Amino acid sequence: MDRPTPRVTPLEPATYRRVPWKNGRGVTTDIAFTDDVWRFSRTPITEPGPFSDYAGFDRSLVLVAGSGLVLQTPAGEIDVRRPFRPVRFAGETSVITCLEAGPVEVVNLLGVRSRVAIDLCVLDAGRTRRLGDGTHIAYCPGGQATLTLAGREHHLDADGGLRIEGAADVAACSVGLIVLGSVTCVSR
């Protein structure tokens, strides 16, 4: 049986939404979102301080610019010192950022855990990821990248992305680096 062809929508920086942090200490850029359910965003962290409370959400993030980010929690540190290694934690976790080497930028994926499951990974040249049903965001944090999906190449410039809806079998990165966020509805 043939799988349906995914619907692919380009994401352009001119259409991204700038949103103040809930704690008032910065601004995030929403690249793709479904209001009050999930969001995929890029955020500069320019000074140490607390993360906003996102009780009821799951949260994943990956460092995409800079180095030396450490997240201090009551249970210990979450090491995000090296770029392109995603981490995951509950949105209600009390987090204080430490910047060991100056300002950084991260890509965040947040989702209401009672409604969606989230996954965040990084594909570099030669890596693939099986995509299932749901919504997937492919984002190029810098340089240029190429994602092959359903036999078609999609070329991405820095800060550009794709919103992928529906089943797509395998996504493959052949050039550059892509941050891939996946959001799947939770069965009730």
How would you characterize this protein structure?
By secondary structure, the protein is mainly β. It has two domains: 7-12 and 116-185, Sandwich (Jelly Rolls), CATH 2.60.120.10; 14-112, Jelly Rolls, CATH 2.60.120.10. The radius of gyration is 16 Å and the shape is globular. The protein is built from no helices and 19 strands. It starts with 6 loop residues before the first strand and ends with a strand. Helices cover 0% and strands 61% of the residues. The mean pLDDT is 93.
Pick out its properties.
mainly beta, 2 domains, 188 residues, five-stranded antiparallel sheet, Jelly Rolls, 19 strands
Q: Layout of helices and strands, plus pairs?
A:
Blueprint: E1 7-11, E2 17-20, E3 27-34, E4 38-45, E5 49-50, E6 57-65, E7 69-73, E8 76-80, E9 87-90, E10 96-99, E11 104-112, E12 116-124, E13 128-131, E14 135-139, E15 144-149, E16 152-157, E17 161-165, E18 169-175, E19 177-185
Antiparallel strand pairs: 1-17, 2-3, 3-4, 4-11, 5-10, 6-9, 6-11, 7-8, 7-10, 12-19, 13-18, 14-17, 14-19, 15-16, 15-18
Q: Radius of gyration over alpha carbons? A: 16 Å
CATH level 1 name of the largest domain: Mainly Beta
Number of domains: 2
User: Count of helical segments?
Assistant: 0
CATH fold label of the largest domain: Jelly Rolls
Query: What is the CA-CA span between the terminal residues?
Result: 27 Å
CATH architecture of the largest domain: Sandwich
Q: CATH superfamily assignment of the largest domain?
A: Jelly Rolls
Q: For the largest beta sheet, what order do the strands appear in spatially?
A: 2-3-4-11-6-9
Biggest sheet architecture = 6 strands, antiparallel
Q: What string gives the helices and strands in order?
A: EEEEEEEEEEEEEEEEEEE
Mean pLDDT: 93
Report strand %: over 45%
Low-confidence stretches: none
Roughly how much helix do the residues carry, as a percent range? Answer: under 10%
Secondary-structure-derived class:
mainly beta
* Number of DSSP E strands: 19
Shape: globular
